[in-house]
Amino acid sequence: MRPRRLVTFGATLLTLALARDTGAGQPPARPDPRDADRRRMVEGQLRARDITDARVLEAMQKVPRHQFVPESQLASAYDDAPLFIGHGQTISQPYIVAFMTQALRVQPDSVVLEIGTGSGYQAAVLSELARTVYTIEIIEPLATQAQATLTALGYRNITVRHGNGYSGWPEHAPYDRIIVTAAPDTIPPALVDQLKVGGLLAIPVGTGEQHLRILRKTPAGLETVTTLPVRFVPMTGKP
Question: DSSP string spanning 187-205?
């Protein structure tokens, strides 16, 4: 698995309006020809492992993963593997997306910060569960493409920003949940500062040997909820 790499750029705000359009007078939705592919993904790759949260499974079933990959990868959109999305980056394996999402225990009123937008797929999954998602991508063309994809799909509770994830997004802090999709040497202090007490942080940490750490913020600091050995690209773009 090769999650997205973050590199250094200046910060440019790319604002989205996101949530589904369901107003009266809308034409009936067309059947999705990839619905069966998603169902097989959910049943074979997620439910058959350790993904048990019904809301997460429903979100993974609903979000059209094939809309977040390049045309050259369409045939593999629902494979049990990461896929290249350009700029040397990938869309993460469906299981990893579901595992991190489930571990965060996102609630309907949660405000979530994502570091590493990539294609926008993880943000779309989170948006099905949360009230608001703020997501930062340091590669500007990916941020722009993710914005376009999410807008076209009708999401209206996501805001995309091009910027340095090490700094977080203090304007909208504190966050109920924070998710990071590249591995820093140590946990960025800004992210800890911007997490609510009682909030959860999902982040891969380490060089060489890495562990995905699920952490809860307490008045005394961070406590570990669970860990999982992983292999992510290094997080770059330190302030």
Answer: --HHHHHTEEEEEEEEEEE
**What residues are labeled active site?**
92
Distance between CA atoms of residues 165 and 176, nearest Å: 17
pLDDT tens for 145-194 read: 999 999 999 999 999 999 999 999 999 999 999 999 988 999 999 999 99
How far, in Å, CA of 182 to CA of 100, rounded? 13
Residue 31 burial (C-beta neighbours within 10 Å; 0-12, 13-18, 19+): exposed
CATH code for 12-23+33-230?
A: 3.40.50.150
| Structure-block tokens of residue 39 | 């169902």
What residues does each domain of the chain span?
12-23+33-230
Burial 58-78, CB ≥16 within 10 A → b, else e: ebbeebbbbbbbeeebeeebb
